[in-house]
Amino acid sequence: MDESYVREVLEKGAEGAAREMLGWVLVHDSPIGKISGRIVETEAYTQSDEASHSFRGQTMRNAPMFSEAGTIYIYFTYGMHFCMNIVTGKVGQGEAVLIRALEPRSGIEIMQQNRKQQSVFDLANGPAKLVQAMAIDKKMNGHNIFNDSVPLHLLAQPLAPDESIVSSPRIGISKGTALLRRFYVKPSKFTSRS
DNA sequence: CGTAAGATGAAG
DNA sequence: TTCATCTTACGG
After folding, report:
1. pTM (2 d.p.)
2. Residue A101 — left, alpha, or beta (φ > 0 → left; ψ -120 to 50 → alpha)?
3. Who touches strand B, with Cβ under 7 Å?
4. Is the CB atom of residue A80 positioned under 7 angstroms from any atom of strand C?
5. pLDDT tens for chain A, residues 1 to 194
């Protein structure tokens, strides 16, 4: 379960990676301390998928999606929110996994400050919430987690024996609703609204 | 240029 | 259920 394994999973593609990444730990070595959380909800987006930002080809905004696996893709939406993806597949492909929810692990006090929320269940149970909680900066957009100078990391971890993976339609999209490309850990209490 | 829609969140 | 808020992409 080392970095080469993480790279291997991401390079294989968005759908598989979105499943595999459940249980992994996302770490931000921030200037004021380590913040981390366990991934409990993801969504897969590929280029052939109408709902994907990459569906109509490469643009200024989605360019990171076409870069190499491990690239960070952060997009701004609804005039006020940032969401983060980890790019998968091969260079030129245009696919990524959206991280939708985390179970807070370390730096919980920092998360509470960043989010102005006390409840551990309301710190990272949504894609824009976790970006805020982990203090993930839009400057990280386009950088790669395998680059040593980038303070964001993924640690591969297995699910607990009593946990399983559930798939469902993705949230907040109007196209591609027939596809079951949202994955979450059952019975985690840290997922976003269903 | 003008503009509609958006991979959301919070409050009512 | 409603609305805040503004970038992006696309059409004219």
Report:
1. 0.97
2. beta
3. A 43, 45, 51-54, 62, 65, 73, 75, 77-81, 83, 85, 96, 98, 115, 117, 122, 126-129, 170-175, 192
4. yes
5. 678 999 999 999 999 999 999 999 999 999 999 999 999 999 999 999 999 999 999 999 999 999 999 999 999 999 999 999 999 999 999 999 999 999 999 999 999 999 999 999 999 999 999 999 999 999 999 999 999 999 999 999 999 999 999 999 999 999 999 999 999 999 999 999 76
